[in-house]
What does this fold into?
Amino acid sequence: MDINAKEIEQAYLEKPRRLKTSSGIPVKEVYSADDIKDIDNAKDTGKPGEFPFTRGIHPDMYRGKLWTKRQQWGHGSAEDTNKGLKLLISQGSTGVSLYRDLPTALGIDPDHPMARGEVNAVGTSLCCIDDMKVATDGLPLDKLSISILCASCPAIVLLSQYIATAEERGIDRAKLRGQLTNDPLVGYFCYCKEANPPELGIKISTDIIEYCTKSMPLWNPMYVSAFYNWREAGALTAPQEIAFGFSVALAFIEGALQRGINIDIIAPRASIYAQAGIDFFEEIAKLRTMRRMWAKLMKERFGAKDPRSWRLRIAIQTTGSDLVAQQPLNNIIRIAYQQLAAVLGGVQSITSSTYTEPICLPTKEAHMSALRSMQILAYETGVPLVADPLGGSYYIEYLTTEIEKQATKILNDIENRGGIIKAIKSGWVEAEFEKSILQHQKEVESKERTIVGVNAYTSPPEEDVLPGGVLRVAAHSEQEQIAKIKKFKQSRDDSKVREAIRELRGGAEMGEKENLISYIIKAVKARATLEEIMGTIREAYGYSYDPLNMRTSPF
Amino acid sequence: MISEGKRIRILLSKVGLDGHDRGIKLVASILREAGMEVVYLGKLQSPEGIIQAAIQEDVDVIGVSCLTGEHLSLVPDIVESIRRNNLRMPLIVGGIVPREDIPQLKNIGVAAVFTSGSTSVEIVKCIKDLVHNPETRRV
It folds into this structure.
């Protein structure tokens, strides 16, 4: 091996290359009281548990309850997913997330021609009540906190499947605890425009909020995931994540207000699904900014009076796109920093991406590593003992305010464009994201941004080995699910299905204000499938039965 | 074979239901900056739909992106369709592809596979080589 004397000297004298945050905020060598002199402590910061909740939503933060360690599972059959969820719970996951496959996200059944190759692949197929029953078999639905992840219109059917499953087991819906990503605008932007027309999306989101606020006191019906999903899609900076995420949340709030639901009914039940990325201090500050901005928006813009409306509850998924395929075990370290940032930022739950993220779905080993990392953080480091331990840091307080300024500017820009739906339709959002993506790539390729294993300290790819190998979903899983659904359709009472579908269509034709969830629960119990239910709603609202225009209604 | 001077036309597309399009949009921008004509088909494309578009658009290269396993389920269908239609254009795959799957894809006829960490220079050079040296094509 050649040793170059000059390189050795350069290595010894190494220093950071990029003197700004990941979002491009210039960073000085030291911060002092001067940098935060314009911050009004009472108005902008306060104490933990007090307006504007910059320092956290509870006075005692994690001493009262640790964050929920919520690992996510969903691949293979409903049986496989059920085993996975039970494994996570047995290993200390204190909540779980159930993840749907892509046909489910689009509202098409497994036997749809475009579902080929996608059934049970990156989530589990939740086509009918039997799937939900099997996926949650043996889980105490009245005790377990569950997140159902499906940021698209069919989320309303999955919620109904969950309620129907509980009721067929004799569990009252009022005892169900958890949330579902009620965010069809993410589906519109990220998955399929045709399956998530924004107007239908707002109606569905509002139905879910209205129904759950009335009859499911432990369920959080407004759970906006645009923060996480859009930052992955191209809102690459912390201020962009906040601004685009809030613009989506505001669209849903406006929808619910128009239905006549009071802000103090909506806001206390809202939460967001955001990122914790690799730029440590910036991410901590960002989470503090999110709470401050939410509190001000709710109180000042919407006139919310209930203090619970001002408290923003934040669920985190550690950022998948910060993880790299090269030297994959290094991702364990990246994840630990991301988790630490989330906890220092005072979040309520963490779903951790795992070290296999850039290569394949999480293996058992990868899940355990991410979970153990959180447990070490919770029990060995002493970090959770103090609320907002970085509060008062000149740098953190400066960043919190700087991110607020930048995010507010972008949010105003979106609103001046007529709100997020118009901004998407005009093509502006996509263009903004494309600019960010190209800029980021240039910074990586010019080595302004150092990514270990990618553009520095590289090693031969054949040395990159995943312990436990690559996770693959068995090829027969798809065929088995298709066969199962065919049998399911043959064995049900067709007249009951037709009656429930007729009633659902009637309800949907009564106009926007008619809440569809009771009709959908009845249809689910009558053994109608996801595609049949979504297709019927779509037709009543003037859209094609099949978002992909390949099938027509059997009714 | 096309002459060195002619602009390269490439069709880029997602395949199947996978919605992750940050990577392919980035590649589209990179290739446009490198002077190529990019036809981006978008999401939710079927293998047959991609091939029909490639024929209509008369492209020199096809690039498909998949991040959720379609490289094993749907990419073979694209290869099959290229053969059935007697097409000569090379097929490139990008996205999340485990390293151990790359030989398999090359065996069935995929000309090149790019995963995360690939650079603009590598991608542009590969496409130029494929267009200007037909013997490197596999399908």
User: Anything to note?
Assistant: The interface with chain B takes residues 102-103, 105-106, 113-118, 121-122, 190-192, 232-234, 321, 324-326, 358-360, 433-434, 437-438, 441, 445, 453-454, 461-462, 464, 470, 473, 548 of chain A (CB under 8 Å).
